[in-house]
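Reading group handout, session on sequence-to-structure problems. Before we discuss, look at one worked example. The prompt was deliberately terse, the way you'd type it at a terminal:

> structure 6-hydroxy-D-nicotine oxidase

The input record follows.
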Amino acid sequence: MAPEARYSVRLFGEFHLDGADAPMPDANSPRLQALLAYLILHRDVPQSRQQLAFLFWPDSTQAQARNALRQLLFHLRKSWPHAASFVHADAQMVRWLPDSAFDLDVAQFKSALATAARAASNNDAATEEQLLTHAAELYRGDLLASCYDEWIAPQRDQLREACIAALVRLSQLSEDRRDYAKALKHAQQLQRLDPLREPTYMALMRLHALNHDHASALRAYRNCVEIFARELGIVPGEALREAYARLAAQAAPTQRRRPRDPMLSMIGRHDEWRRLLEVWQRSQLGDKQFALISGEAGIGKSRLAEELLVHLSGQGFTTTHSRAYAAEGQVAFAPVTGWLRSPALHQAMSGLDRLWLTEVARLLPELLTQQPGLPPPSPLTEYWQRQRFFEALARAVLATDGPLLLLLDDLQWCDAETLEWLRFLMRFDVSAKLLVVATARHEDITPLHAVSRLLDALRRDDQLTEILLGALDAAETAKIAAQIINRPLADAEATRLFEESEGNPLFTVEMMRARSDTATAGGTPHGTVPKLPPKVYTVISNRLAQLSPAARDIVGVAAIIGRAFTADVLAQASDVREDALTNALDELWQRGIVRQPDSGGIAFDFSHDKIRDVAYAEVSPLQRRRLHQRVARALEQAPDDDLDAASAQIAAHYEQAGLPTDSAAFYRRAAGVAQSLYAYDDAIALLQRGLAQAGQIVDPQERARQSLALQLDLAPPIRISRGWAAPELDTPLRRAVELSRHAGDFGQQARAQLSLAFFLVVSAELAQARSLSEELIAGLGTSGSGTYASMAWTNIMGSLVQQGDWVAAEPAYQRALGAYDETQHAEHVSLMGGNFGVLASAWSAHAFWFTGFADQALRRGREALEVANRLAHPFSQALALSYLATQHALRREHGLTLHYARQARSIADRYHVGYYLAWADVLLAWANAKQSPGADAVAAMQVAIEGFHATGARLRLPLYLGMLAECLGDVGETEAALAALDQALQHAEHTGEHWLDAELYRLRGELLLHRSANLAEAESSLIKAIEIAAAQRARPLELRAALSLAALREPREGIGARRVVEPPLARFAEGFDQPDIVRARALLAR
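And the output record:
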């Protein structure tokens, strides 16, 4: 007979069998409960009596066990009238009828989990959470907790693990939604289910901390320690101990950083939040990551990033926040400075080695005061020094123990130097647990933007996670509004708000705050309207118009400042009394116009840049000029160190105020600061702006004075960052020389003339370079000594060498050597980037070789390298090695050329010395081509020469083109080789760089010999080579040309042709191991 109602069977926890309006069976017997549970759990398959008897009474005989089973089934039928509708028993089998009317909690549990898994695969988190919650509620305890039979243990463990997994997932889903109270409830249920599971205690500590219950977070750890010691005799794992140490060291919860507006909870962004947490977890494994949150203005980028910062800092992780500004006058590395000045990083880096702290002091000059005896950073003169500075900053940032979050707002406005350093940081210390989160307006980042280059590099290295934020939906928009007005919106209100705000959180907040204000006032913008929807602009403008008069004044001054501001600067730049200023700031804070980025700090900032934009536009043009001047004057009151940091900002304010004299002076000061931070491009841009301002100065003498100073300062950063022959040097150097003749002192004239002279040398404008240097020597007077003299005589000597006047070059070298002192090294480097004593010796070595003194030439070249090594100056080392490699190339020693050129290239590449890098590449390509001729080797030679051209330099092109011609000839490309020689000879004729004319004509003769059977033209070219070499006293080139002529004539004249070699060979008194001399002797000995 069928039962009148369905029965409910509960196996989780205690056994329970219940049916509505039906008598309850007498199921108190543990054996009967176990039997029913077994039959229900195995209802899909009939169970044999024999198997059941053995399973439940294993210690009895078969007959006793079967009899016990019969009695138990009889008792079931007698105590439960509806038993036959659920349990079928015959002589052989017993089975719970699967189609009977019953509900089983275990089946419901499994069904809920399976359906939840399908929902998860469909990304339906809401349905998944609902089903998992139902499953967790069904699990009232372990499966049939009163049963201790062996058969139940595997199923009990399986269901228990399934419930644990469900609770873990539930806790995670709630935490992802930032519903920490609910996540905590699930974690506590987990702890009760399995008190020996360590990840549960980690979750409890984290969730208590996120719920601002610091004491409970610490108590969770202490409970874990006690339970693990009592039950397992062990201590918690390292990760849990580290988490406890972070929380124990943390300040009281009330001192923690909070989001910018604690009134407003973050709405939506569930998927984006999950991705941020995932990338954080990845970074904790030692895989440094960079997350970019992008979207339009006001879409909630900073709000999402700050939510992560609060989430992590609440757990005791080290976090710090900085930002970039669109306002002009931002100092290089300003965001990095902000990070390093945060308490967590500032305290940690104090333990760095003094070498690194000295470099960090370029950004944080207060370190020199805080740590007496810390050496001040040395002046920067070379690009390669930036590597050490970058490493120091990376070490300072990563000095904290454990994982680190760096937050950077408004990446699109970040300076190029910070972007380049961020790339360095992401490659530095592969084991660092670092996550950088940046926000950016995606519409401002074009493919050519500097940020794009950083992002491309991060993508290549699989370090970038990109999160693009879109508009909120209508329901989420309504939830934000409800938080502001403290009531739900009616459907019509919500629809209208969504249409007006377009789901933009900032617009939504501003519109609702405007509606909540009781006053209404319009306003017509005085200035340029920011790029905002007109309706939103009007809303923000009206909000500002509703401020008190004092607050309106203050908000205008704050907008003029253009970045974070202090009450002191506001007071100095405005006409508002101190008490009124305090009240006005409080009003702005209460209304959400401004905020304090750092809790407990003294600086304020606008709650959003768009509010600043509107506030600035509301200030009339005349008022702006006046306020820019007052802000600049206020910022000038800062101490010297702070004044350096603010100098670019002050310059921009003076420019906006129409005061070019002050503006130009501060742009020059700002450029010096930028150069001290290796921010050479910034320094160049600042100096160019300063020059533009100086050009507007009315007083002609002051205009000339400032223009000269700025032009002189412009040359070093261009030379350091772009090379000695950068075309951009031409105009400022020529202008500096022109200005110095009537507006400069002697030191300025000397600097200008030396700088231009050396630029002209590497540009192969040798006559002009020599003339300028001689003018400087004449101006020095009778003493002719000192730094300027040694550098000027070196320029003269080098010009003579390249012009092929070896005899005159040696006295010039002696004058340079007599004026040089190694103590001048720092001044040489400061003025020109390299040591001119090293340069003079290396360059004069070439003159020695050309005049036949090969051994002395090698000694002089090696002495130059020894001095460079003793000075430990990479630029000078690359210089000496390049000259030495060239000397071995002139000697035709391919192996030694490779040896020294590789060393030169290594140093030049490591220290970013582009000129010598290109020079070394040409020598390497030539030596490789001579050792292994072929089309690929020639192509490499051509690429190397193109690379040299790209530096802007033209000096030694005859050598390089001659080398190319030689390599082309080796592979049978005679016409191309002759064309290269024609180009080399044209260059020599145009520039006066005649030092290699004899070799070029010799090569021409060799090539003509291969092209035509008519030997006359080839012989004529070789004779001309000998004549040129003889006239220049270029002994090695004369001998080499004579050897080529002898080879040409020998088939016609026989042994008599060799006599042409005898005179030049007889002129050598040393260098007998050179290949040409060895070949000549062998020829004459035959």
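Points for discussion. First: The longest strand covers residues 434-441. Second: The first helix runs from residue 30 to 41.
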